[in-house]
């Protein structure tokens, strides 16, 4: 029963993170500002994947760098490509690459994993009863 509770709690935490990120992306789409940046490189991650590094400029002329949350063997964008970035005014740390493939894939994966842990915990609890 303890394992079931732990699995449900892990699932709930992961689901919370996924839903929170989806809500943040929705807010960026409705209230965020769009800026254009350029891919300056790829960051190698564990497992061999590469994440896109983008330099972009906000409304005040300040330059920022953002690293994609998604990594793949073949990056979504090549070096030198123009990329749309969305951010909340006055908060450049809220920036994300404005690409549905980039944002939707990782968030759906987080939500599915959260549901999986929660469902496994519930199934285990029901089986023990």
Topology overview:
Elements lengths: L1 H30 L1 E12 L5 E8 L5 E10 L9 E7 L2 E7 L2 H29 L1
Helix pairs in contact: 1-2
Keywords: Membrane, Transmembrane, Transmembrane helix
Protein name: DUF3592 domain-containing protein
Organism: Paractinoplanes bogorensis
Largest sheet: 5 strands, antiparallel
Secondary-structure element series: HEEEEEH
Task: Figure out the total of helices.
Answer: 2
Q: Give the termini distance in whole angstroms.
A: 9 Å
Can you tell me the number of structural domains?
A: 1
What can be said about this structure in brief?
The protein has 129 residues and is α+β, with helices and mostly antiparallel strands. Helices cover 46% and strands 34% of the residues.
Description:
- The protein is an alpha+beta fold.
- The chain has one domain.
- Helices cover 46% and strands 34% of the residues.
- It is built from two helices and five strands.
- The chain has a five-stranded antiparallel beta sheet with strand order 3-2-1-4-5.
- Helix 1 packs antiparallel against helix 2.
- 22% of the residues are buried.
- This is DUF3592 domain-containing protein.
- Keywords: Membrane, Transmembrane, Transmembrane helix.
What labels would you give this structure?
alpha+beta, 46% helix, five-stranded antiparallel beta sheet, 129 residues, 5 strands, DUF3592 domain-containing protein, membrane, 2 helices, transmembrane helix, transmembrane
């Amino acid at each position: 029963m303890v394992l079931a509770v732990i699995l449900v709690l892990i699932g709930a935490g992961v689901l919370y993170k996924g839903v929170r990120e989806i809500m943040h992306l929705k807010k960026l789409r409705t209230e965020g500002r769009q800026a254009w940046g350029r891919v300056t490189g790829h960051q190698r991650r564990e497992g061999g994947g590469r994440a896109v590094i983008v330099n972009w400029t906000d409304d005040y002329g300040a330059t920022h760098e953002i690293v994609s949350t998604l990594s793949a063997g073949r990056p979504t964008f090549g070096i030198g490509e123009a990329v749309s970035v969305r951010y909340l005014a006055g908060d450049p740390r809220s920036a994300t690459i404005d690409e549905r493939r980039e944002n939707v894939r990782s968030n759906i994966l987080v939500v599915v994993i959260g549901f999986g842990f929660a469902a496994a915990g519930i199934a285990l609890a029901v089986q023990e009863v």
